[in-house]
Amino acid sequence: EKVSLGNLMKEVLDESVLIDPKHHYILKNEEDDLLITGDSSMIKQAARILVDNAAKYTPEGGDILLRTGRNEKGHSFFLVQDEGIGISPDDTPHIFERFFRSDPARSRESGGTGLGLSIAKWIIDRHGGYFQVLSREGIGTRITVCFPS
Length: 149
Ligand code: ATP
Fold this sequence. Notes:
Largest sheet: 5 strands, mixed
Number of strands: 7
Helix content: 25-40%
Bound molecules: adenosine-5'-triphosphate
Number of helices: 4
Radius of gyration: 15 Å
Strand order of the largest sheet: 2-4-5-7-6
Structural class: alpha+beta
Strand content: 25-35%
């Protein structure tokens, strides 16, 4: 199945705006018709997990940016960027492990099991994709999902 990353992120954005009025959602599609091969409902689920996390760890009123494009290697990507609490360098290598939650996340009243990102990784691995994580504590987090094919 051909999946348009731009259309997919537009659908995720539209959902998020309805579900979560407490953040400001922005979408930038850098290229028209950025197509990959895969299962659109699974990839959308992975994108939703990233957006849910961005909302969960970003104070009210913060921006959440969704972007699609092509990286320097020519790989199609989508990314979710937030203005949240960030992830410490010690924790970053562990966020895709099942049931991992950082201390600030664990002590937050907002629920969560620590399974979301392990599920997203399972989906993206099966599509031959890979993640890039860029985060600064107190500044925000950007998680990029790239597809080589
Ligand atoms: P859930 O399973 O409901 O998604 P969760 O958010 O705790 O719960 P994961 O999605 O697997 O679980 O994320 C693992 C951990 O990575 C989180 O507990 C949090 O510590 C950290 N994390 C993930 N995304 C972000 C983000 N955007 N900003 C800050 N920390 C994050």
